[in-house]
Amino acid sequence: MKHIGKKLIPAVMLLLFESVAVALWLTKDNLFYLFNFSFIGLSVSLGIFLYNRKYKHARRVVQLLVGTYMLIYLGLICNENMQIEGFWYYLFTGVFEAATIHYAVAKLLGPLIFGRGWCGYACWTAMVLDFLPYKTPSGPRKKIGWIRYITFAASLLFVSALFLAKVGSIERIMFWAFIVGNLVYYALGIALAFAFKDNRAFCKYICPITVFLKPMSYFSLFRVKCDKSKCVGCGQCRRVCPMDVDITDNSRKRKNGTECILCMECVKHCPKDAL
Ligand code: SF4
Ligand code: SF4
Ligand code: SF4
After folding, report:
1. What are the tens digits of pLDDT across the range 58-94?
2. Domain boundary at 179, 197, 217, which?
3. Ligand 1, closest atom to CA 116?
4. How far, in Å, from the CA of 137 to the mean position of ligand 2?
5. N or C terminus of the chain: which is more exposed, having fewer CB within 10 Å?
């Protein structure tokens, strides 16, 4: 029964994304939404299917498919700023399109269901950072997570200033902000990864989007849980976790619980099949 359930997950995910795709296509009368969410749904379902077949790079396949689609097609070809500045921009203009829909689905409401799955499977910044050599952090976590609030406030101030100053062609500025913003994120992310010997240092300390993602994912429906009757306390799950999560604690208050990106490394490496 458990086996059948596992096989059905890709189909359920596809159905979920198709429902969003069709609903948005019809309500917004825009075929783009059908294509967009169908592509993402197919990529996610393919990833889960490959994971069930024990393909080692299943997560990376989804990350590369969705990440490059968003960066190259949506960002560079369609000129949609899907960074946080783009979200503020569309929010201020009162348009429920592109970046606002993206944020609602992936970063505000979605995390209530799939936690920080965005960070593990779709983010184009992490897509590049995950190629770096420090897949698991070699030192303790630094106490500099407060920087994310500064970058969050800076992005809000930047877009607010453009609106207050009534700057013309904000849309063009948003496109260039997307290019420059991404270059800065990549440069900073790579530098931090090497400095801290931790691929995900940028995610842990700098990324402004975590200001949304962390509190929402606290309530996530999908969570990795530990079967205490099987766990022998070997600590292997802690050693392989890129985000320093104490996954053996099943409470919502588990250490670094809102950092879990559902990468499943702990599940794959648990010698007792306890996760
Ligand atoms: S924390 Fe930010 S940079 Fe890292 S994966 Fe999540 S959204 Fe991307
Ligand atoms: S790897 Fe498995 S057995 Fe070891 S501590 Fe983690 S959950 Fe327990
Ligand atoms: S290794 Fe486990 S606890 Fe750590 S981020 Fe991945 S899924 Fe979450």
Report:
1. 999 999 999 999 999 888 888 888 888 888 988 888 7
2. 217
3. 6
4. 18
5. N
Q: Is 236 in the pocket of ligand 2 (CB under 6 A)?
A: yes
Q: Whose CA is nearest to atom 4 of ligand 2?
A: 234
Query: pLDDT tens digits, residue range 40-54?
Result: 999 989 998 998 888
The closest ligand to the CA of 227 turns out to be: 2
pTM of the shown model? 0.90
Same domain, 242 and 116: no
| Buried/exposed 227-248: b ≥16 CB within 10 Å, e otherwise | eeeebeeeeebeebbbbbbbbb
Å from CA of 118 to ligand 1 middle = 8
Range of the domain at 262: 224-275
**Amino acid code (one letter) for 216:** M
- Supply the residue whose CA is at minimum distance from atom 8 of ligand 2: 231
The verdict on 207 and 168 lying in the same domain is yes
Nearest atom in ligand 1 to 208's CA: 2
Is the C-beta atom of 128 inside 6 A of ligand 3?
A: no
Residue 184 near residue 175, CB atoms below 8 Å: no
Distance 197 CA to ligand 2 centre (A): 24
Place of tokens 């766990």: 231
Number of domains in the chain: 2
Segment 121-146, tens digit of pLDDT: 999 999 999 999 999 998 889 999 99
Asked if 189 and 121 sit in the same domain, the reply is yes
- Residues 208 and 135 placed together within one structural domain of the fold: yes
**Cα–Cα dist 48/9, whole Å:** 7
What CATH code is carried by the domain that includes residue 260? Answer: 3.30.70.20
Same domain, 121 and 229: no
